Amino acid sequence: MLNREQILTNVWGYDYYGDTNIVDVYIRYLRKKLDDHLHAPLIHTVRGIGYSIKG
After folding, report:
1. Which of 6, 8, 22, 34 fits 2 for a cystine, CB–CB 3.0-4.6 Å?
2. How many helices (H) and strands (E) does the chain have?
3. Domain ranges in the chain?
4. Angle at CA 24, nearest 5°, toward 10 and 16?
5. 4-53 maps to which CATH number?
6. Residue 46, SS3 per DSSP
7. Which segments of 1-55 does DSSP mark as H helices, in order?
8. Are 31 and 25 in contact (CB under 8 A)?
9. Which residues pair with 2 in a beta bridge?
10. How far apart are alpha carbons 36 and 51 in whole angstroms?
11. Cα–Cα distance between 32 and 38 in angstroms, integer?
12. What is residue 15's DSSP assignment?
């Protein structure tokens, strides 16, 4: 499970300065691409904690 800050740091780097909702935008893009081909959702939001992948 990863929270938004962990994703920002690992994907965009420690010095990223911008909106933190960019993570939400890209998670939505990933869900659209992945869920179109799968019968069950792969990426799950754990409210108040972050995101997890369940296969």
Report:
1. 6
2. 2, 2
3. 4-53
4. 40
5. 1.10.10.10
6. strand
7. 4-12, 22-35
8. no
9. 51
10. 19
11. 10
12. T
To 5 degrees, how large is the angle CA 35–CA 29–CA 36?
Answer: 20
Q: Is the pTM of this model over 0.90?
A: no
Residue 35 to residue 6: CA distance in whole angstroms: 23
Tell me, what amino acid is at 42?
Answer: L
Question: How far apart (Å, rounded) are the C-alpha atoms in residues 18 and 4?
Answer: 13
Residues 6+ apart with CB under 8 A from 10: 2
Question: And the tokens for 30?
Answer: 């990933």
| Displacement of CA 37 from its chain's centroid (Å) | 18
Six token digits for residue 10:
């690992």
Tens-digit pLDDT profile for residues 14-55 = 788 777 788 999 999 999 988 877 778 999 999 999 999 986
